[in-house]
Amino acid sequence: MHRLNCHVQNYAWGKKGDDSEVGRLYGAGHKQFQIEQQKPYAELWMGTHPDGPARLHGSDLKLSEHRARLDNAPKEDDHLPFIMKIMAIQHTLSLQVHPTKEQATQLHEKDPFNYPDRNHKPELAYALNRFELLCGFRTAKEIMINMKSFPELQTVMGVDNCKRFMALVEAGHPDDSEELKQAIKDCFTTMIYIENHSEVLVENLAILRQNLEHGVRGCLIEDTVEVMFKTLDLFPGDVGCFAPLYLNHMILEPGECCYYAAEELHAYLSGECVECVGCSNNTIRAGLTNKYVDRESLVQVLNYRMTDPSYYIVPPQSLTPNVVEFAPDCRDFTLHEIKINDESSSSTSAELPNLDCASIIVFVSGDVQVEENDQKRHTVTRGDIYYIPKDTDVKLTRLSATPVLAYRTSSDEEGPDHSNRIRTDGLSQAEILKMRLRNEVRVSLNNNNQLADVSVEMDGFM
């Protein structure tokens, strides 16, 4: 086992200072770190991705380099297939979707600046506290109810498009029918091509706010109405403010977990979570942002699945009295929750499953003695993060009254190759522009008519 020094992302939407579990946890495990109270601490990355690589504690050696040396690999870096994160969300993230592997490869070949990775990015979110997100299209019936209750939604989606969609629903077409998927795609495409802050959009968002204030609800619950008022305030003139009318609003309680693969439209709203993602940083935005929105790629990547939110829930599976597994339909990651309760419990130790693949574990609470392969012993505490090689026997023993809580992510999938990835961090906009023109890549402007900078267009930025 190797202790790791990991990487914090200070995205603007993150919780600030001591309010952020990311800042608190990182500070506990990195003793030289001092929290700045006005600085956002959004994500703690635990993995090998080039945008936030873990390094061996006490060394400048990247974990990916260490793995390559162990395996005598011909390449400089051997990447894990996942990134495990702790996230602390104060403000709504952008409405976004991630491409499949095939789509990511095509997008990278077309535009390696906006899409630097060839890998897909499935995502799992495990709630540490009350955690809210938008995820996937609502059932067709719910979308129809909201179209009828909020005529302004029909206006921005196209009245004829909506009439065709509602006629198919009322005729009994199932949610997974190609006809219904095409109909909602037509509605979404018309809406997403409306320019933010345009007269028609501003006018209909004002009508939306007025209807909500007057008690129009459709199939919305009050928690969703609260989200809509918040997005209308945070993102005035943004087409993404309509999203809760056609996307599922999910509220996860602590210990609940959801998963969605590529091609699913989503946005994190609030709360703190453990997140597992594929080792990629590709993002296609749809709204709730002032950054670049690639409409052409967006409408093609979405799968337009309409379903109940229960579809995205990952049920827990108990492996041992101390280990619960969350295993989505995905080879890129599996999450283990590890608990050893307080002194009132008869159990003071836990043997972790021996895995035939590498993993990363983060300790969230407790003081623990770690026994490795029945011999090597060391003490760990809150905030410590370790890399566990494959075929390693690990036993944890609680050393104090504080309950032990840890999270472990693993995968037997081969990690992606990032060797040809274009990096633009640290470059000026003029230098980036020269690189793009030299590589004959399209020049993208965001809503502020600024050059879309890949170093701030990544997942997590508003």
UniProtKB/TrEMBL annotation:
Q: What is written in the cofactor note of this entry?
A: Binds 1 zinc ion per subunit.
Cofactor(s), by name? Zn(2+)
Instruction: Mention any Pfam family matching this sequence.
Output: PMI_typeI_hel
Instruction: Indicate the residues that form the catalytic site.
Output: R285
* PROSITE patterns documented for this protein: PMI_I_1 (PS00965)
Q: Which PANTHER family match?
A: MANNOSE-6-PHOSPHATE ISOMERASE
Q: What is this protein called?
A: mannose-6-phosphate isomerase
